Amino acid sequence: MSKPLYQLKAEFFKTLGHPARIRVLELLSGREHAVAEMVRQVGVEPANLSQQLAVLRRAGLVTTRKEGGTVYYSLTSPHVAELLDVARRILSAVLSGQVELLEDLRTAGQPVPRGG
């Protein structure tokens, strides 16, 4: 028996639910990267990066190619980069709406809650 589509989507988004994985996908949206490059740019320990890359490989989001002793990662589909771009646009709109609400509260003389 196959899983319902909504459950598969939930599992897909769960795979994206780690900051290091998102950062890796963002980097790979521009071009392929060697693991050593990503360690510096993602800002995690090599062992942790390897774990995150393994999760992304199992999910079918990234692929590898080996050249000598260097492993290069790339996206399996340009749709992954499109998804990240859509997420950025959604977040920008949400945050913009929050800024507008904050300004409305300030101009109305309401106390503005501090982060927390």
UniProtKB/TrEMBL annotation:
Keywords on record: DNA-binding, Transcription, Transcription regulation
Residues that span the membrane, as ranges: none
The record's GO molecular-function terms, alphabetically, read: DNA binding; DNA-binding transcription factor activity
| CDD domains cross-referenced by the UniProt entry | HTH_ARSR
Give the species.
Lentzea albidocapillata
Q: Which SMART domains match?
A: HTH_ARSR
Read off the InterPro entries from this record.
Answer: ArsR-like_HTH (IPR011991), HTH_ArsR_DNA-bd_dom (IPR001845), Metal_resp_trans_reg (IPR051011), WH-like_DNA-bd_sf (IPR036388), WH_DNA-bd_sf (IPR036390)
Indicate what this protein is called per its UniProt record. Answer: ArsR family transcriptional regulator
